[in-house]
Amino acid sequence: MNSYRESIAEVLFDESRISAAIDEMAAAIARDFSGEPILVVGVLKGALFAFTDLVRAIARRPNGPSDLSVETIWASSYGNATRSSGEVQLRKDVAGSIRGRNVLLVDDIVDNGLTMQYLRELLVQRAPARLRTAALLEKPERRLVNVRLDYVGLRCPNAFVVGYGLDYRELYRNLPIIARLKPESFAPEN
Ligand code: IMP
């Protein structure tokens, strides 16, 4: 038995549910960008897993984009491990120009929405041909800003979740599932 199982209170989304959500998003994206080139930008670090699974799922679709390139951008927003400071920090930008290109921004989870809003506004200023946004998870109850989300995989309850790229203090990103942690798994200051 893996030790992480002892830290988990409840599995919210298992591997097959995550994979089905990724496939549904890929189908919609492939349809919308059929025959056109697309640049998929993954938001580090949390979206790494959703991003790589999503680009491969798009590639499996018939009649998808004509070409697909990948880039990454790194933004962080959390003041401490589970609560957002409300300030978004850009730690790594995309390389090269996005002017006149079709861009799909992929994040792991949209919580209060400030990170996605910040990144969307940053990229929109650079005049892409089309800018679409995707998030594997969203927590609608926690939204503070009404950011545009074109593709959403799963609706998440109002709880702090880990796994499939999402971390608590840099741990649990490697879990193949998305889960709630037991209260005793959080450090005392939380
Ligand atoms: P937002 O700016 O509040 O929408 O937060 C976006 C970022 O916060 C995400 O990209 C995640 O990195 C992180 N985040 C939000 N909710 C969770 C969670 O439940 N678990 C782990 N990270 C989260």
Kindly list the characteristics that best describe this protein.
single chain; 190 residues; alpha/beta; Rossmann fold; six-stranded mixed beta sheet; three-stranded antiparallel beta sheet; 3 helices; 22% helix; 34% strand; globular; binds inosinic acid
What does this structure look like?
There is one protein chain. This protein is α/β, with parallel strands linked by helices and 190 residues long. The chain has a single domain (16-159), classed as Rossmann fold (3-Layer(aba) Sandwich), CATH 3.40.50. The chain has helices at 15-32, 48-60, 114-124, and strands at residues 8-13, 37-44, 67-78, 84-92, 102-110, 130-138, 151-155, 161-162, 178-181. A 6-stranded mixed sheet has the order 4-3-2-5-6-7, sandwiched between helices. A 3-stranded antiparallel sheet has the order 1-9-8. Strand 5 (102-110), helix 3 and strand 6 (130-138) form a beta-alpha-beta unit. Helix 1 packs across helix 2. The protein starts with 7 loop residues before the first strand and ends in a 9-residue tail after the last strand. It binds inosinic acid (IMP). Inosinic acid (IMP) binds at residues 46, 77-78, 84, 107-116, 160-162, 166. Inosinic acid (IMP) is lined by residues 46, 77-78, 84, 107-116, 160-162, 166.
